[in-house]
Amino acid sequence: MIRIAIVDDERAFLESYTHIVEKLFAKNRIEFVVQCFYKSEEFYHLLKRNYFDIVFLDIDMPEINGINLAADIRKLKLETTIIFVSSHSNLVFQSIHYAPFRFIQKDCLEDDTSEAIHAYCQQIKEKKNTIQLKIENGETYCFNLMQIQYFYSVRHDLFLVYSNKKIAKRLFPRAYTMDALGKMLHEKGFIRIHKSYIVNFKYIHQIQSDKVLLFDNSTLPISRSNVANVKRQYKVIMREDDAI
Questions:
Q1: What pTM, to 2 d.p., does this model score?
Q2: For residue 2, how many other CB atoms are within 10 A of its CB?
Q3: What angle do helix axes 109-128 and 11-27 make, rounded to 10 degrees?
Q4: Fewer CB within a 10 Å sphere, N or C end of the chain?
């Protein structure tokens, strides 16, 4: 769920722009909630108590302007994406000091906003499809989940198997358990089919009564008592594929 704040002192603009933002996030199949702020001071007081993933900030506002609000966000070290929305294009260079994701000009509002939200959503989806894991040499790597076929365990040792050439990497000893991995990967499209196997749903071709057949014709064991649950999870993930 993406938490969005829109801050602008013009009520009519705030209302119409909120509609544009909601429409574009929905188009990109992102679950979101929007909170609007007509008074920048109200937003400022909420900063320390409420976290927003992305903030659309007008620059020219009474009370506290958008540049100062961006400075406060950065001082608090919040991992909030800032997008400035302004009719004052001459302020773009000043805004760079606060590392905005985009600077949207109000005279190109719909086009600029569409591009910004699409780029932001793509970034989220890419992040969703990665995971950081510590491997046996002690180093931490960022793995692309799309390239991992499955995880398996042999006693206390855990391995991940790449889709290309079935290369297996051993995870750092005793750093993970199958239960912990299962919880970590559950919302990323992986299914625990057996006490020793967690599989990426994208590689499952068929779920049978005693095994799971992958698209490369290899098979993995499945717990008989877990077949119905695995099939149910698979159907749910298939429906939700590409949605956040």
A1: 0.63
A2: 18
A3: 40
A4: N
